[in-house]
Specification:
The protein has 268 residues and is an alpha/beta fold. It folds into 2 domains: 2-111 and 182-266, HAD superfamily/HAD-like (Rossmann fold, 3-Layer(aba) Sandwich), CATH 3.40.50.1000; 115-178, 2-Layer Sandwich (Gyrase A, domain 2). The protein has helices at 49-58, 72-78, 115-128, 155-161, 184-198, 218-223, 254-266, and strands at residues 2-3, 17-20, 33-36, 39-42, 63-67, 86-87, 90-96, 101-104, 107-109, 136-140, 146-150, 167-170, 174-178, 208-212, 226-229, 240-241. The strands form 3 sheets. Strands 1, 2, 5, 6, 7, 8, 9, 14, 15 and 16 form a 10-stranded mixed β-sheet that branches. Strands 10-11-13-12 form a 4-stranded antiparallel β-sheet, with no helix packed on it. The chain has a two-stranded antiparallel ribbon with strand order 3-4. A hairpin with a 4-residue loop joins strand 7 (90-96) and strand 8. The longest helix is centred in the C-terminal third of the chain and has 15 residues, at 184-198. The mean pLDDT is 92.
Amino acid sequence: MKDLKELTVDDIKDLSLVVFDVDGVIVPRGTKILAEKNRVTYDLKYPPQRFIDLAKKLLDHVNVAISSGRSMLTIKNMFGALVGMESANHSFILQGENGGRINIIADEVSVGHKAAFIHDLYNIKEKLMKITDPNLSGLEPKETILTIHCKERVPEIESVMKDYPYYCLWNGEAYDIGAADVNKGTGLVKIGEYLTAHKKINADSFKAIAIGDRQNDIDLLKVADISVSADPDVLKDADFGVFDANFTDPDKLPGVLLAQRLVELFEK
């Protein structure tokens, strides 16, 4: 794995798209959530202004996408300063719920969820809501995946999911549950199909770079032409790694450092 600083102009030649994960990449990890009866509250971290400014510069050169496990409503709120932006025929794109929701300008792109899966999510949610483990913090509202925040792993959740053919990923602070055939990687493919159909990009020359830091980013990094690990200690199989990130400094978050490096290379 090369250091991000070794990324060159030749590496990003003809780049079509840059994809940023959110938590642990553009904002620090850690979501405080509290579920009480019919009310759920959680603290929402926003991207630093430095990232917003860099993303606007990137749009002069390439399409920019956010790929998150969070709901579409949440990421539209977080990235409101960029939503709907286009520059030099490049668009700002939102991919939420681990590839389960995609929004490009005003277009909602279908990802092909099966009706049986959506119904199963309801049944799974009902079962999980009956678990009384003290490590449970709450269920984050989403449409096409379930995210259960926990202080530690909860074996009963994993036991329930053994009866279903869906993924159940533990990321250190929550479980993500979703359809195995819909993920951030398939979401990237869908975005590529849309851009080649609507932005006059040749399908054979479509090229993407993506950055992620956790298990739900593995498919994204596998599909991307250039992969960047925001946490080389966790995701070790990537082309480049960010080795000098600082989560206490908004200007040195992994996604900010990637955006900064790309702007430097584009403006050479």
